[in-house]
Backbone:
């Protein structure tokens, strides 16, 4: 796979993971923990696909195939790191919403 396609895959899968994680938080806020956890699982799948593409680049460089660092590559890395951070935060928020829901019986204010 050529460099541009790998970069686009990283951006695509990471962007989808971020969107799924944000949506998961909204489900959690509304108390729909089943949908929230489903979205987190889907986000994890997309992050794994993105990470696989990133690993291809790392392995290529380890074999001696140096890639020129481009703004697009940096952008892709930024997308992946943001997706991972948002996913991790979404999990924490959903856990908190669930605790609040169990303690108070209603999280919708």
Residues:
């Amino acid at each position: 796979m050529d460099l541009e396609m790998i970069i686009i895959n990283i951006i695509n899968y990471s962007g989808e993971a971020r969107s799924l994680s944000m949506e998961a938080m909204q489900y959690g806020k509304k108390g729909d923990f089943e949908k929230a956890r489903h979205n987190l699982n889907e986000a994890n799948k997309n992050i794994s696909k993105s990470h696989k593409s990133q690993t291809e680049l790392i392995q290529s460089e380890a074999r001696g195939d140096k890639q020129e660092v481009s703004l697009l590559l940096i952008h892709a890395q930024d997308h992946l790191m943001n997706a991972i951070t948002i996913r991790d935060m979404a999990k924490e928020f959903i856990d908190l919403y669930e605790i609040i829901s169990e303690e108070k019986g209603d999280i919708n204010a």
Observations:
- The helical segments are 3-29, 33-62, 71-104.
- The first helix runs from residue 3 to 29.
- The two ends are 49 Å apart (CA to CA).
- DSSP finds three helices and no strands in the chain.
